[in-house]
Amino acid sequence: MATTEPTIIDRPYRPLTKHKLPAGRPRSWYVMHNRRLKAMRLAIALLESGVYRADLADNDTIRRTASLVGIHPPSDKTCRLVRDMMRTRR
Q1: Out of the domains of life, which is the source (predicted)?
Q2: Residue-by-residue DSSP string for 8-59
Q3: φ and ψ at 36, to 5 degrees?
Q4: pLDDT bucket at 16, cuts 50 / 70 / 90
Q5: Is 12 contained in some domain?
Q6: What are 42-68's pLDDT values in tens digits?
Q7: Is 18 a member of any domain?
C-alpha cells in the first residue's frame, strides 16, 4: 500500500471565477440553484465551526452561523436543505 504525501499549498486561496448562469430556464430553477449554493456555503461553515450532525443544526444555529459568515439569514426551507446536505453521505 503506497502512502501519499500531503499536498503543500504555497499560494493563497483565490476563489474561482464566476460564470453567468444559462439563459432560458424557468425562474424556479434559478431560485433553487441559488438556494443550493447558499445551503452549501452554510453547511461548510457549520462543519468548520464544529457542528457535525444535522440534528444539532437547528434554524437558530444556522442563522447565527449565517450572520457570522456574512450571509443573509436563510429561510426555513434553506435551513431544511442545509440539514439535508449535512445528512447526505456520498
Answers
A1: Bacteria
A2: P--S---PPPP-PPPTT--HHHHHHHHHHHHHHHHHHHHHHHT--SGGG--H
A3: -65, -40
A4: confident
A5: no
A6: 999 998 888 888 989 999 999 999 999
A7: no
